Each structure stands twice: as structure tokens, then as C-alpha cells.
């Protein structure tokens, strides 16, 4: 439609009014509605996961949960010879934080494995001392099979929510068959409480994988998601040689390994180690002078 405007006694003709949205020139098309809706939906889901990860979960421990938490916390304290006066899950977290602060990554993993052995009932501990005999018995009683993998997954969901939070069994494909061998943890209690990638890796993931493989004869691959704090335990799968989880950076400012008095350039222990790694040459040159 054309618009006519009278200006200074003359008729001036203006071009037709374009109904295209601003910035959309000819030759450019609006994205399909389905694409726009899928992008918006994906963004909303991501934001919801991030909000869920930042919301503090409230746990109500029953008598069995409190007993198990206390037993594991005392086992860790006895192994490290570092005690604390806290109660409940806070005592377990405090014991983990002290290990993280006082030992390197390899020592942390070894101490957790020792604590797990200490926490086992005495009869199992006695059998475990004869590792070859114990492993042979385990392999005879629980050989690698669908039944074994599913039993371990079901056992984890029944007896370990006090440690990792609520969890459920999921299916996966193994050798072309569908099995219920995966434990899915929507939000890991230990990761949420420590809020530290290094503590998750060195005090839970790596030692648990080694302990279950070496002591119980079943391989397991733990895959934490540090964005929403979820995790998957895949029974029957060997951890990869180059595990991408081990290269994950820490949460920095929110990490519970924070010690402001350690160094003004390091807000967390993880940052401190990284800073020292990047500046070690500077220290050597300075001391040589």
C-alpha cells in the first residue's frame, strides 16, 4: 500500500511499508518455529539443572544411615590418625577435607582404599588378606555375568543412599543385550557436600573403582557430571585409560578446600596447586639468587 504526503504543495510518493521484522532483509528467512522452540527448551532445561545443582539438598538420615556414616567416618579418621569433633555427615566431610589438605592425590586414594578395607566386617577382612584366594572365591561365586552386574547395581541403590544420596537403577546395552547394570545418582550427596572436583575424583571415584575391581572382582566405571552434580556407576565397564574426568577443573571459589590464609593468589587448594605448577621456575630462580 502506498502513502501519499502533501509537502510544500507537492505530492510525494513513499515506498510501500515493509512488514518484515527489522534486521531481516530479503534473502534471509526466519528460523523455523520448531528450531526456536527446541533451542528455548534446551536452554530452559540447562538453566533448571544449574539451579537444581546450586540448591542445597536436605537429607533426613534414619538410624541405619547415621550408623553407616559414623562407621565410615571413624574408619577414615582411624586410618589417617586425624580426628574431628563433628557429628553425622559433617564428620565424614570434615575427615575427607583433612585428607585433601594434608596428602597428595595418590596418597588420598590409597588412604580411602585402606579405610574401605578397615570398614569391612572382620571375616571379609581376613579373607581379603589372602587376596588371591579371596578373588578366586568371588569369581567362582559371582562370575562376570548379567546377574552379577545387576546384583551390584541393585545392592548399591539399596544400601548406599546414605553416602551418595537417592539413586536408581538404569538400563544399558552390554554385548548387544539390555541389562540393569547402571546406577544413576541425580545429585551426589558427597559431591554436593564437599563441592570439590578433586575430592570427588581422589576420595570417591578413583578409589571406589579400584576397590570394587581389586577386592570384589567387578569392574565399574563412575562418570560424574560436574555441571548438575549427577553421577553414573556402570558395572561391568572398565574405566578408560585416559579418563576425561581426571582433567576436569575445580569449582574454584565455591570449593570447600578453600583456605584464604594459604596464599593470596590461591582461593582454593586446587588453584594453589595449579599456581605453584605454573610458577615453580620463578621460585627456583629466586632461591638461586
Protein described:
The protein has 289 residues and is an alpha+beta fold. The protein has helices at 33-54, 63-80, 88-102, 105-119, 122-129, 131-141, 146-159, 161-164, 189-194, 197-216, 269-288, and strands at 4-7, 10-13, 168-174, 177-185, 220-225, 230-235. A hairpin with a 2-residue loop joins strand 3 (168-174) and strand 4 (177-185). Helix 4 (105-119) packs across helix 10. It is globular and about 50 Å long. The model is unreliable at 1-12, 23-28, 42-52 and 258-268 (pLDDT under 50).
List keywords for this structure.
289 residues; alpha+beta; four-stranded antiparallel sheet; two-stranded antiparallel ribbon; 11 helices; 6 strands; 53% helix; globular
Q: Could you give the order of the helices and strands?
A: EEHHHHHHHHEEHHEEH
Q: The biggest beta sheet, please? A: 4 strands, antiparallel
Q: Could you give the distance between the termini? A: 84 Å
Radius of gyration, in angstroms, nearest whole number: 28 Å
pLDDT averaged residue by residue: 76
Instruction: Work out the number of β strands.
Output: 6
Q: β content, as a range? A: 5-15%
What is the overall number of helices? 11
Strand order of the largest sheet: 3-4-6-5
Q: What spatial form do the alpha-carbon principal axes imply?
A: globular
User: Which stretches are poorly predicted, pLDDT < 50 over at least 5 residues?
Assistant: 1-12, 23-28, 42-52, 258-268
Assign a percent range to the helix content. Answer: 40-55%
| Main structural class | alpha+beta
Amino acid at each position: 500500500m502506498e502513502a501519499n504526503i502533501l509537502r510544500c504543495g507537492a505530492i510525494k510518493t513513499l515506498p510501500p511499508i515493509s512488514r518484515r521484522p527489522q534486521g531481516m532483509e530479503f534473502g534471509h528467512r526466519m528460523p523455523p518455529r520448531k528450531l526456536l522452540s527446541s533451542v528455548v527448551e534446551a536452554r530452559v532445561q540447562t538453566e533448571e539443572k544449574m539451579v537444581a545443582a546450586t540448591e542445597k539438598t536436605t537429607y533426613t538420615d534414619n538410624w541405619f544411615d547415621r550408623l553407616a556414616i559414623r562407621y565410615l567416618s571413624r574408619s577414615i579418621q582411624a586410618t589417617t590418625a586425624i580426628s574431628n569433633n563433628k557429628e553425622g555427615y559433617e564428620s565424614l566431610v570434615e575427615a575427607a577435607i583433612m585428607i585433601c589438605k594434608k596428602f597428595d592425590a595418590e596418597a588420598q586414594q590409597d588412604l580411602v582404599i585402606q579405610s574401605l578395607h578397615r570398614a569391612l566386617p572382620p571375616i571379609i577382612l581376613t579373607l581379603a588378606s589372602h587376596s588371591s584366594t579371596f578373588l578366586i572365591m568371588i569369581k567362582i561365586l559371582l562370575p562376570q555375568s548379567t546377574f552379577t552386574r545387576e546384583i551390584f547395581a541393585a545392592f548399591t541403590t539399596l544400601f548406599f543412599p546414605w553416602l551418595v544420596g537417592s539413586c536408581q537403577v538404569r538400563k544399558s546395552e552390554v554385548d548387544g543385550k539390555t541389562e540393569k547394570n547402571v546406577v544413576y545418582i541425580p545429585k551426589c550427596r558427597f559431591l554436593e557436600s564437599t563441592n570439590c572436583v578433586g575430592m570427588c575424583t581422589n576420595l570417591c571415584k578413583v578409589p571406589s573403582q579400584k576397590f570394587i575391581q581389586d577386592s570384589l572382582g567387578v569392574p565399574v566405571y563412575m562418570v560424574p557430571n560436574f555441571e548438575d552434580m549427577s553421577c553414573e556407576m556402570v558395572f561391568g565397564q572398565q574405566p578408560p585409560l585416559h579418563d576425561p574426568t581426571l582433567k576436569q577443573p575445580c569449582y574454584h571459589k565455591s570449593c570447600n578446600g578453600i583456605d584464604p590464609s594459604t596464599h593470596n593468589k590461591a582461593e582454593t587448594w586446587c588453584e594453589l596447586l595449579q599456581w605453584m605448577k605454573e610458577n615453580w621456575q620463578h621460585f627456583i630462580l629466586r632461591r638461586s639468587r
